[in-house]
Amino acid sequence: MIDDPMERIAAALERMAPAPLAAPDFTTADAFVWHVTPDRLDPVGKVNRVPLDLLIGINRARDILLDNTRQFARGLPANNALLWGARGMGKSSLVKAVHAQVHAEGETVKIVEIQREDLPSVGRLLNLLRGTEDRFILFCDDLSFSHDDQHYKSLKAVLDGGIEGRPDNVVFYATSNRRHLMPRDMIENERSSAINPSEAVEEKVSLSDRFGLWLGFHPCSQDEYLDMIRGYCDAYGVAIDDDTLRTEAIEWQATRGARSGRVAWQYFTDLAGRKGISL
C-alpha cells in the first residue's frame, strides 16, 4: 500500500498514461494517414490520385520533384519541398503521382499524410518513423498559418529537426497557396504595427526558407486547359470531337470563373457521366 499522497498521484498518472504506440506493419500498405487521440497510423488501401502523365503544364515542377524523390528513395540526400501557387493546378496531385511513379520503378518509399492541425504531434510521429528501415514522405496538404497560429513551431521539428535532427528516412513535402505560408496582407499589417518590423514576421516568413525546394504553380493557359481535358478523354476512352470539346470546356470554364487543372477534371467528370463512362 502506498501512503505518500504524491506517490499515489504518480502511480495513478502512470496508469492513465497511454502505452507507447507500437509501429504498425508497414508492409500492409504504401500510404498511411496519421491520426491523434489516440495516436495511430491508418493504412490507405487505395490512394486517390491521377497518373503522372496526365498532369499537364507542370513539367518543370514534375521533373524536379521526381528527381528529388528518386534520390530520397535510394538513400541519397534529398530536400524538403514546398509546392506553392495557384489553386487547382495539381500541387497535391503531383506529390501523390510522384510517389506512385517512384514506387512503380521498384523503389520502396511510403507516404504519410498529416493534417495541419495535427502538426503539434509531429514529434511523436517522427519518433515512430525514426526507428524503422522504411523511407517516408511526410505530406501536409494546404499548409498555411494565421497571425496567432503557433503550429508553425511544430513544423520546425520536421524541417530543422532540433537537437536530434530530422530522421534520415523522412522527407517533408507540403502544398500551399501561399509562398510564405501566410497571407501577404497579414505580413504587411504585422510589419507596419510592430515595434521592430523586421522581427515581427521574420520567424514565420523564414519558415518557408527552410524548404530546400520551392516549386511554383501558376494559372494555366487555355490551350493547356484544353490539353488536360483531351488527355483525360484519351486515357479513359471518352470520345468527343475537338470542336465540341472546345466549346463545352470553355463554357464550363466561364461558369466557374476560373481555369485550372481542377476545373478541367470537373468538366471531364461531367462529360464522362453524360457519356456513360465510369472513372
Please name the defining characteristics of this protein.
single chain, 2 domains, alpha/beta
Q: What do these coordinates show?
A:
The structure is a single chain. The chain has helices at residues 5-16, 59-73, 91-104, 122-130, 151-159, 184-193, 197-200, 202-205, 222-236, 242-256, 261-275, and strands spanning 31-35, 40-43, 81-85, 110-113, 136-140, 170-176, 213-217. By secondary structure, the protein is of the alpha/beta class. It folds into 2 domains: 26-217, Rossmann fold (3-Layer(aba) Sandwich), CATH 3.40.50.300; 222-275. Strands 2-1-4-5-6-3-7 form a 7-stranded mixed sheet. α9 (222-236) packs across α10 (242-256), α9 runs parallel beside α11 and α10 packs across α11. The longest helix is centred in the N-terminal third of the chain and has 15 residues, at 59-73. The chain is elongated, with a radius of gyration of 22 Å. It starts with a helix and ends with a helix. Mean pLDDT is 84; it is low at 13-17.
